[in-house]
Amino acid sequence: MNKLILAGASALAFVVALPALAQTAATSGAAAPAVAADNILLKEWTGPYGGVPPWDKVSPELFKPAYLAAIDLQRAEVKAIAENPAAPTFANVIEAMQRGGRALQRIDVLFGVMTSNMNSPAYQAVDKEMSPILAAADDEITFNEKLFARIAAVYEARERSGLTPEQQRLTKRTYDSFVRQGAKLDAAQKTELAKVNQELASAFSDFGQKVLSDEDKWTVIDNQADLKGLPASLVASYKAAADERKLSGKWAVVNTRSSVDPFLTFADNRALRETVWKSFKSRGDNANATDTNAVIAKIVKLRADRAKLLGFETHAHWRMDDTMAKDPAKATELMMRVWQPAVARVREEVADMQAVADAENKRGEGTNLKIEPWDYLYYAEKVRKAKYALDTNEMKPYFELNNMIAASYYMAEQLYGLTFHEITGQVPGFHPDVRVYEVKDKASGRHVGVFYRDDFARQYKRSGAWAAGYRGQRKFDGPITAITSNNNNFVKGAPGEPVLISLDDTETLFHEFGHALHGLLNTGTYPGLAFTPRDFVEFPSQVHENWVLTRQVLDRYAKHYKTGEPMPQALVDKVRNASKFNQGYATVEYLSSAIVDMKLHMLKGGVVDADKFERETLVEIGAPAEIAMRHRLPQFNHLFTSDAYSAGYYSYLWSDVMASDAWAAFEETGNPWDPATAKRFKDIILAQGNVIDRAEAYRAFRGRDPDVDALLENRGFPTGNPAKK
User: Which cofactor does it need (predicted)?
Assistant: First the structure.
């Protein structure tokens, strides 16, 4: 993360889980080749909209010389600030830092996007080589005693030097960040910390590349009979995946969630479900060259050593020092409050599923089976049909990808007055699948920003879905408008066929779009205050999932891909009636990962056997055997490709408390599109970045602290309020 511009801030409002390299760069001692001056990656972005990334000119061999040259440029900027003979002021220290490192920041963006979406072996090699260099460079800024002395002087005088509240906050956050990263350590401690940080950077890169290698696999299906139970659209997508991999006459289930989960839900072939499930859940855990368990052990130990050096009890305490929760105990308390009712609900769900399986056996339609993890989604679907007369296959024909994209833009227009105008082909993209939009203010026609989207899975693309900010909005030295993006891993259909996605996928699409909106609508002055705590950053994205099932969206966009008819109200009613169905599974799958993460990073010594720790912790907390962690440790990119979500996966639950309560604010008006509530949400939650404390911001929006009961009620769990039980 660029320490000059961003002042060590912990989480950009619209950047989610970029690779480690894209989050650590600053300066380095490596010399830059003279030829780097002509490197396109070093140059200001040109073209329309205040300049756009030069994707058509990006290639892996350009990055090392560009990074080395940018490091030298930034070193000169740091020296000028640190050795300025004038008395330290906000203008010549803090504002000067906000101007610094912009070439390096642009390179970080380009490299982060390429290593997320197009991470070929050539990019992996650059990542491996440059990660420790960049970590050392980051420390060079933190450990610059002259620079820190000037920061400290501005900090000490902040309340008596005529600074605005925003300037005072930026000064304090800059100072606190430097202290948290080791600026006050003695020389020996700094040397030791630098070594730890460089080793961590290398380990992060190693972990990500091993997992990526295990994701570049697929289960081949040779016989059409083995496709029984799968809807035609899904069969077509597996056929397209096989064709793409030159597997003529076959079908391929690729190792990404958007491909795996539908197969587990509908495939009648139990043996194949087990094969697909095990392939997906064993990523990084196969006792071979791509096994990550030793890397995890190294990372956890290094993190514990670093926390001790920095004066914190554990890595979890260090990571949470700059969050809303502050204390691991507080986050754990919330998780366990939700965990117990979720586990109880899972027992009910498993009993319902087992009854269906037993009935099948009695009718001679099945084998005498006990529900296993690869059976959960399959039998849950059968229970859903029996209890709610709802077949999720009924829904997919109404969720055509392009229509759902248009629906998300409609949401942005209705709530915030933003319009999206496609400009694909007018500016470069990094892959032919990328689509680009200019974002405007509807009322004035004013340009707001640019939005990129990359929706489809491919080789060398990391799994999952995420948002990334290419350029943050700022008034300081501006105006500068935002460039944001969304990235998904939907499976393409056969040529000419529509891409039909599930309700869950549609909610994910709206979720990631919420991150993009957070970036587009930021109106802060300083880049260093565009960042929010990790346990706040998911809140604005999670709340936007709720608009998917509003009647306005369904009537306009949830239209059957063949008939063009909108989703009938009877089907919507079934969906709503079943909205709390399987919440035990969804909650336990997520929370088991979050609890294991927190317990792992509360180990004081940091010595761990990852496989053993995962197994024993799940037993300790009473995790149901029928459900696996959403992200097992050997493939948990959130935790081990950077520090970003380490001891922080709980943040989705913390944010969901706010998201559930904020959605209740809209519902209480009787209109989910209520203009006054939308304006308050935009002005207070989305536009301010981190200009004021986020807990204060939430109270300003809602009039009080968030209510945990709103989350429990949404999931159908018992609440603390007898009236809501």
Answer: Zn(2+)
Question: 236 and 158: one domain?
Answer: no
Same domain? For 125 and 259 the reply is: no
Distances (CA, A) of 500 to 168, 169, 193, 572, 599: 50, 46, 50, 17, 39
Statement to judge: residues 83 and 195 lie in one domain = yes
Q: Is 512 labeled as catalytic in the residue annotation?
A: yes
Are 173 and 248 in the same domain? Answer: no
Q: Mapping DSSP to helix (H, G, I), strand (E, B) and coil, where does residue 571 land?
A: helix
Tell me: do 117 and 252 sit in the same domain.
no
Catalytic residue among 140, 400, 438, 512: 512
Residue 184 near residue 110 (C-beta atoms within 8 A): no
Both 154 and 206 in one domain: the answer is yes
Residues 236-255: pLDDT tens digits? 999 999 999 999 999 999 99
Q: Domain containing 203 — which CATH number?
A: 1.10.1370.40
Residue 218's H or E segment, with its range, is strand 218-221
- Please report where in the chains the tokens 């009979």 appear, as a residue: 225
**Amino acid 15: pLDDT:** 30
pTM of the model: 0.89
pLDDT band of 365, cuts 50, 70, 90: confident
Same domain, 50 and 186: yes
Place of tokens 């380490």: 646
Measure the CA dihedral 710/711/717/720, to 10°.
Answer: -50
Tokens, residue 239: 């056929």
